[in-house]
Amino acid sequence: MKRVFLLLFAGTVLLSCDVGSKRTEAPKITAKPEKELFQVPDTSTLKDDEWGRQVKYGRRLVQNTAYYLGPDGIVSKNLGNKMNCTNCHLNSGTKPYGLNFFNSHKTYPQYRAREDAILTMSDRVNNCVERPHNGKPLKLDSREMNAIVSYIKWVGENYDTAKHVGYSLKYVKYHGLSADPKRGEAVYTTHCKSCHQEDGQGQLNGDKTMYTYPPLWGPKSYQEGSSMHRVLKAASFIKYNMPDKKASLESPVLTDQEALDVAAFINDGSIHPRPNPTHHDYPNTQTKPIDYFKGPYIDGFSEEQHAFGPWDEIEKYYVDKGLKVNK
Asked: What pLDDT, on a 0 to 100 scale, did the predictor assign at position 24?
């Protein structure tokens, strides 16, 4: 029979065993380091070389898109309205959870459900030119396309998914909720009207070349096929970024419900018409987002429920079928 005895030395209890036994040490527990919000370096760190100048030009295009490429653009007239990329991709695509470019370049080429095709980064840029800007595509080999893509690449060069968070959007918690445009009108009046105006047509800058605050509906706003026309997507953008200069990731002004309601009010086509897409979006019904406003769908739920919720039953349908839930 093996003998086991305790030795007490200097207040420490030691476990001793006969020769031939193995000592068992407690496993070391190493806490995983918390991920940090990614911070984009300043363009002043760029060298004054061809690459640096190209990136800086791309940044100017993102900030002042309509000035360069709009209906009265000094370079071309590709855009159908005077909105700038930074109106949606906040702080020139560098704001955490503000539709930024942190991981964009690294994820393309990728499958896009809207076209049911594999798109390149340049294709995706034109995707925005055509829909939110209601325009015609840039030439893929143009200086402006190369500059925008170069800037997007530079923004995310140091973004590491193992270390950083903050890419794209932080989604609202929509389970158990639905969106009500009528409630959303009151939210709009309280929090949005001062910038985007009562009629939703936004505010142009001093020389009227581009929007300081973009129009949210009407002929000068984004098309129906735009991502921001979907309530879950728009609500997620709104909650953590609006009202401008008041809301923050740590201290949002609106609740999830209020963000959903005001997104529904803005995007309700029965009261707020906007440009119609000239292309057929989401041809594959299996990959259509659950909040897309227009059928056909593979499920039996109505266009109204897809647009305004509740989305729980729709999401469950996709999960039960083993399909990806797109939103």
From this structure: 52
CB within 8 A of 187, min separation 6: which ones? 254, 258, 261, 262, 265
> Please, what's the b/e burial string for 235-258 (b: 16 or more CB within 10 A of its CB; e: otherwise)?
bbbbbbbbeeeebeeeebbbebbb
Q: Rounded to two decimals, what is the model's pTM?
A: 0.88
Q: In Å, how far are 1, 34, 35 from 42, measured between CA atoms?
A: 72, 24, 21
Q: Where are the domains of the chain?
A: 41-168, 169-327
At 30 the pLDDT is 56
d(CA 109, CA 311): 30
Write the class of the CATH domain 41-168: mainly alpha
* 127 neighbors 112 (Cβ within 8 angstroms): yes
Q: Which amino acid is it at 160?
A: D
Could you tell me the pLDDT band of residue 278, with boundaries at 50, 70 and 90?
A: confident
Do 126 and 69 touch, CB atoms closer than 8 A? Answer: no
Q: Which CATH superfamily is domain 169-327 in?
A: Cytochrome c-like domain (1.10.760.10)
Helix then strand count (H, E) for the chain reads 11, 8
pLDDT digits over 57-99, tens only? 999 999 999 999 999 999 999 999 999 999 999 999 999 999 9
Q: Which band of pLDDT confidence, cut at 50, 70 and 90, is reported for residue 214?
A: very high
Cα–Cα distances (Å) from 293 to 47, 67, 187, 235, 281, in that order, read 46, 32, 22, 15, 11
